[in-house]
């Protein structure tokens, strides 16, 4: 029995505004959140929620996680870029080369995202959200594979990727060099123990895999904040 990926959480100064942006980009429905945030509901049975949660902390560096959105044609890529910009996003230069086909943007709060060029075989059958792309080590990728029970679908040259057996987006780790953390991550995962499972038993299991408990944090009431082998925060929620 393994943990379930419940949500990708995004800390936001304006959760309703950021949620409306992402709902417009992704075409997802909005719902309320018990932590005074806003939830974007999954659009299929392989998806996870996206939770926009209130935070007063400012963004201090490039995020460790960003969305890779796929496109089916040059027109589709341009349409997605135009939609992001119309909803309040902007272009950003993070050192990408002119010959690279993807377009780098940010949402209204400065969180990076990429609109991938058509014909990308690695993300060919992953859906519109092709991947959650992480700046991280192979150790982190292997940890999350075991934590979620998602097999490694790429493991080469220190780069790793996992994917749910049910399909959906990949989660990828780009390998070294890994940029140093500059504060608490604005994007992090919420996990739930296995159905009818025990939260403490799941915390113990994740600890045995290389996670660390980092004490009280901004998790949902009763949640346990932990960090993966790269120091990236995540929450283990109470059983539902």
Please state roughly what percent of the residues sit in beta strands, choosing from under 5%, 5-15%, 15-25%, 25-35%, 35-45% or over 45%: 25-35%
Multimerization state: single chain
Largest beta sheet, briefly?
8 strands, mixed
CA-based gyration radius: 17 Å
Q: What is the terminal separation in angstroms?
A: 15 Å
Order of helices and strands: EHEEEEHEEEEHEEEEHEEE
By DSSP (H or I, 4+ residues per run), the number of helices equals: 4
- Label the CATH architecture: Roll
Sequence of strands across the biggest β-sheet: 2-3-4-1-13-16-15-14
Query: How many structurally independent domains?
Result: 1
| Overall geometric form | globular
CATH topology annotation: 2,3-Dihydroxybiphenyl 1,2-Dioxygenase, domain 1
**Mean pLDDT score, rounded?**
92
CATH superfamily: 2,3-Dihydroxybiphenyl 1,2-Dioxygenase, domain 1
| Structure class | alpha+beta
Indicate the low-confidence ranges by residue numbers.
none
The top-level CATH class is: Alpha Beta
Helix content: 10-25%
Number of strands: 16
3D structure, described in words:
The chain is an alpha+beta fold. The chain has one domain (4-173): 2,3-Dihydroxybiphenyl 1,2-Dioxygenase, domain 1, CATH 3.10.180. The protein has four helices and 16 strands. It has helices spanning 15-26, 74-86, 138-148, 199-209; strands at 4-12, 30-32, 38-40, 49-54, 65-69, 90-91, 103-106, 112-115, 129-134, 152-156, 159-163, 170-173, 187-192, 212-213, 224-227, 233-236. The strands form two sheets. It has an eight-stranded mixed β-sheet with strand order 2-3-4-1-13-16-15-14. Strand 2 (30-32) and strand 3 (38-40) form a beta hairpin. The longest helix is centred in the middle third of the chain and has 13 residues, at 74-86. The model has no long low-confidence stretch (mean pLDDT 92).
């Amino acid at each position: 029995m393994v943990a379930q990926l419940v949500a990708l959480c995004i800390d936001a100064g304006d959760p309703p505004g950021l949620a409306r942006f992402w709902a417009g980009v992704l075409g997802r429905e909005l719902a309320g959140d018990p932590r005074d945030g806003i939830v974007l509901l999954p659009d299929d049975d392989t998806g996870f929620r996206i939770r926009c949660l209130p935070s007063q902390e400012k963004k201090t560096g490039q995020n460790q996680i960003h969305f890779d959105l796929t496109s089916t044609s040059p027109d589709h890529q341009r349409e997605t870029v135009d939609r992001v910009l119309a909803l309040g996003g902007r272009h950003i230069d993070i050192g990408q080369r002119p010959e690279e086909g993807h377009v780098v943007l940010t949402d209204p709060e400065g969180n990076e995202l990429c609109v991938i060029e058509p014909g990308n075989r690695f993300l060919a059958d992953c859906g519109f959200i092709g991947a959650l792309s992480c700046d991280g080590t192979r150790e982190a990728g292997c940890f999350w594979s075991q934590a979620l029970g998602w097999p490694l679908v790429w493991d080469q040259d220190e780069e790793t990727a996992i994917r749910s057996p049910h399909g959906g987006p990949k989660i990828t780790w780009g390998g070294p060099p890994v940029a140093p953390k500059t504060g608490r991550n604005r994007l992090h995962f919420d996990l739930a123990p296995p159905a009818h499972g025990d939260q403490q038993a799941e915390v113990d299991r994740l600890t045995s895999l290389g996670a660390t408990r980092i004490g009280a944090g901004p998790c949902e009431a009763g949640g346990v904040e932990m960090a993966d082998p790269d120091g990236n925060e995540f929450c283990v929620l109470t059983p539902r």
